[in-house]
Amino acid sequence: MTIYLAAILAGLGAGAVYALIGLGLVVTARGSGLVNFSFGAICAWSAYVYYDLRTNARYPIFVPGPWQAHRFGGDDVRVTVASAVAITIATAAVISALAYVLIFRALRSSPLLAKLVASIGVLLALQGMISIRFDGSSSINLPSTLPGGVLRLTDDLVIDVDALWLVGIAVVLAVAFWALFRFTRQGLAIRASAESEKGAVLLGFAADRLAIFTWVAASMIASIVGILAAPVFQLSPLLFTQLMVPALGAALVGRFMSFGWTVAAGLLIGIVQSLAPALQSDFSWLPTLGLRDGLVFVAVIAALVIMGKRIPERGALDSGRLATVGDGELRPRQTLLAVATVIIAFVTIPDTWGLALLTSVTFCGLALSLVVVTGYLGQISLAQMTIAGVAGFALSRLTERIGLPFPIAPLIAALVATAFGVLVGVPALRVRGVNLAIVTLAGSIAVQEFVFKNSVFVGDLSSGGAPVSRPELFGINLGLRSEDDPYRPVFGVMVTVVVALIAVLVANVRRSDTGHKFLSVRSNERAAESIAIDVARTKLLGFAVSSFIAGLMGTLIAYRFGSVSANSYTFFSSMVLLAFAYLGGIASISGAVLAGVFASDGIGFKALDSGWARLGIEFGRWEIIVGAIGLVFMAVKNPEGLAGTVHRVGRRWTARRR
After folding, report:
1. How far apart are CA 222 and CA 129, in angstroms?
2. What is the pLDDT of residue 546?
3. Is the dihedral of CA 450, 453, 454, 459 positive or negative?
4. Positive or negative CA dihedral for 202, 203, 206, 209?
5. Which of 135, 533, 595, 645 could form a disulfide with 528 if both were Cys (CB 3.0 to 4.6 A apart)?
6. d(C-alpha 85, C-alpha 80), whole Å
7. Buried residues in 347-365 as b, exposed as e (16+ CB within 10 A)
8. Helix (H, G, I), strand (E, B) or coil at 137
9. Cα four-point dihedral sign 612, 617, 619, 622
10. How far, in Å, CA of 205 to CA of 208, rounded?
């Protein structure tokens, strides 16, 4: 019993951090109706600002440019704790206020997907600036600002004093915000705006002022989390983005409304994670890997699906319009010319450019999976890369253990991924919108923890990844590498042919009766049911088609690297995939092609990097910033993506010629 009590006390610190981040998410959601996925990045930037102020007496400048930081005096100057805290809080408040005024205010009446992509764009911008300003610092041990030491309860039970402080701060902030929203005029106005924005405006409340107030308040929580929580863990650029996932679970339990339930759920998640090692030692049937992080998300998914409760939707003035879906027509002559051009490029261009082109073609195939499930069906999935990873690990087992040849092995692996994708789509029968996005994100985390890190399912990972046999057909090596050649264009040709066939499949789905059903469900589920469309079956079919495509691309990724590692299929990769698919145009095949062109490390950024290098400018460091700015711009100004812009310009040009 003592072991369990000690584990409970040890989990309070991490649980308090989850509770604080969850509080910030709830405050933002209640004020603006947005689940802010960039909140963790604001915490991270705050932590790095505080670290630089205290350690180097420097203030890192967020605005992109050659300037790095402002230094306070000489080498012997030190910034006090109070000054560093005040500057850090002010920085977070300014960043959040600018983000709302410049970005999210314009998206107030936009579709949920546009808001989600914009928040991912802000996240990427902050992550990119951290990498640039701090040279990609992998881990930093930040000294604690809270009182240290331990409090001994008994001979065997101790608790860290800083954990008690974190719990106390979380509880105090929860009570303070509850009182603010319950008893003050400002809080009552925010609650009224969340229920009916139109009604709040008619009563004389300015919705923008209420929203910006909550954004600034949430940013203060973010800065506090960054300052106080970083010493509990090891500070790294992705630390708080990873901590966002359990915090989202806590906020979901509170339905993004209740401060008390959010704090309680955050503390409980931290305690359950801390109890995992003790439970594993007493119950041998429990999995040895992944229990700490995976069990929580399984519980969150089960609770959401069983209860079937949705996050209360904000009564906005306008629901916005979804991106226009492409007609699905592929002109044979132009399609064959494009495929032939890519194949010739693989054969003729240098190796480094060939690898960049291979990245673009692969990303195009992954984006096509989102065209089906998000563009046509209207379901937001943040598990596409995890689905691809399931296929990759299945391919390793099929080729190494069973010895299945190419192309039988990748097809079976893609079918395994399809079955998993259908399971991911089951929650879509009960929840949708941001709830579904978070559930798919939680499901991807659970799979990464329970499956991708477990040798029982994926084989020996001692060498850094599960090996995959190279693809061969009729004795011909179709792999990217051989014993004598580190780069073989034939693999790029094979990937191009596969992606072209996938594009034909997606085009046929769009023009078929199934595609019409997808669009009906996307437009209005109740209206679809009224014309005898089985919404549940249609959703599961959409997830199945999308997962099969993602699975095929996952096998090609595995063939490319010759092994499968969990690092290639992270939840963060799924978020980036969704964002760049939106940038290209998430509802059309041409949008998927453009998403591939401008993918990170793709041919588009390779060309930009080469062009700027001739001018003596290192573009590679700013690649993620440029992509993030493009994402935000498209989310605000052009929901059709780059493909919509190209089509619009083409129509105008044709009209002028006529």
Report:
1. 17
2. 93
3. positive
4. negative
5. 533
6. 9
7. eebeeebbbbbbbbbbbbb
8. coil
9. negative
10. 9
Q: Among residues 183, 229, 256, 270, which one has the least CA distance to residue 46?
A: 229
Task: Give the per-residue pLDDT at 90.
Answer: 92
Looking at residue 317, its amino acid is L
Structure confidence by residue, pLDDT tens digits, 51-92: 888 888 888 887 766 667 777 766 667 788 888 889 999 999
Q: Looking up tokens 């509850």, which residue turns up? A: 178
Bridge partner residues of 159 (DSSP): 151
pLDDT at 188: 75
**Which residue has tokens 């010739």?**
344
pLDDT per position as a tens digit, 536-575: 889 999 999 999 999 999 999 999 888 888 777 887 888 8
Residue type, 315: G
The DSSP string of 622-658 is GHHHHHHHHHHHHHHH-TTHHHHHHHHHHHHHHHHH-
DSSP 458: H
| Residue 141, CA distances (Å) to 166, 192, 229 in order | 18, 43, 11
Residue 343, exposed/middle/buried by CB under 10 A (0-12, 13-18, 19+)? Answer: middle
State how far the Cα of 13 lies from the Cα of 2, in Å rounded to an integer: 19
pTM confidence score = 0.85
Residues 6+ apart with CB under 8 A from 32: 100, 104, 108, 211, 214, 215, 314
Residue with tokens 């402080």: 165
DSSP notation for 495-564: HHHHHHHHHHHHHHHHHSHHHHHHHHHHH-HHHHHHTT--HHHHHHHHHHHHHHHHHHHHHHHHHHHSEE
Please, are residues 269 and 249 in contact by the beta-carbon 8 Å criterion?
Answer: yes
Q: Is 276 left (phi over 0), alpha (psi -120 to 50) or beta?
A: alpha
* Gyration radius of the chain over CA positions: 25
Check: CB of residue 348 under 8 Å from CB of residue 336. Answer: no
**Domains (ranges, CATH) in the chain?**
2-307 (1.10.3470), 332-571 (no CATH)
Give one DSSP letter per residue of 403-445, joined into a string. Answer: -PPTTHHHHHHHHHHHHHHHHHHGGGGT--HHHHHHHHHHHHH
Q: In this structure, what token pair is assigned to residue 281?
A: 């030692």
The residue whose two tokens read 């019409």 is 516
Compute the distance between CA of residue 486 and CA of residue 482 in angstroms, rounded to an integer.
6
